Amino acid sequence: MTWHLPQPMLTAPTADPTLPPGWAAEPKWDGYRAQLARYADGRVLLRSRRGDMTPSFPEIRAAAAQLPGDTALDGELVAWEEGRLAFERLQQRLPRRGRVAVAAATRWPAHLVVFDVLRLADTTTWSYRRRRAALEELFTDLRLQAPWTLTPSTTDPDTAHGWLEWTAAGMEGLCFKRLTEPYRPTARTWRKYKNRMTVDFHWDRWKTSRRGRWTTSQPPGRDPACRVSMVGSPLVVVTVPARQDGLKLRRVECLD
Question: Taken in order 51, 56, 62, 63, is the CA torsion positive or negative?
Fold first, then answer.
């Protein structure tokens, strides 16, 4: 029987980091949203919301042989570097193909952090709680290891709050998912809380890249006049102009 990956279920932002009753929380990873299909005939598709990523990540395609035929997963494609999520490595790898992609996989291996199972049977009609149990069973029965990672999930508010301290590793925040809800393609009924922090910096001394990584030779963490030890964020918003000690300063809000 022919089947296709559904469109991804989406998140809506929330300003409240508290886990509501009847919901589960998961860490929000900094990577590419990715769905994977492993068909019974051996074909593999790794797809983002922008299109096919399969040729760019050959290690994921090869590892899909561990999965049963006609399996579909939903997750976040990530790369690690020096103990921190490195989104820029995924960006560098995406346009690469063939031998160049294989070499990049050796240098910057990707991992698929799986948070949902979309097909063993047609699992999209199942509740989150039932899909999560099936996903955990899949990882246990097959003893899946890297590049597969099962994302943590909890219904305990204290555990969820503790995950907000993972920002040093590049974690973006939390996702909240209703336990009784089926997988609803394109629906924005999951909730997303992003970490926030405020810092001061010398605006004239350095600038940010498109993803908010600091790109000058002297980042703020190495500038003795700056009040920040580390900044890395997908979005930087100037919120409060200020002057202090005759230097031009700006206060920015970093949404990790």
Answer: negative
The tens digit of pLDDT for each residue in 218-240 reads: 344 433 433 333 333 333 333 33
For 91-105, the pLDDT digits (tens) are 999 999 999 999 999
| Domain 28-154 fold | D-amino Acid Aminotransferase; Chain A, domain 1 (3.30.470)
Of 189, 183, 85, 72, which Cα lies nearest the Cα of 119?
A: 72
d(CA 34, CA 14): 22
**CA Rg value for the chain:** 20
How buried is residue 141: exposed, middle or buried, by Cβ count under 10 Å (0-12/13-18/19+)? exposed
Domain ranges in the chain are: 28-154, 196-255
| Contact by Cβ (8 Å): 93, 56 | yes
Confidence (pTM): 0.78
Q: Strand, helix or coil at 103?
A: helix
Name 110's bridge partners: 79
What pLDDT is recorded for position 243?
Answer: 36
The β-bridge partners of 137 are: none
d(CA 48, CA 135): 20
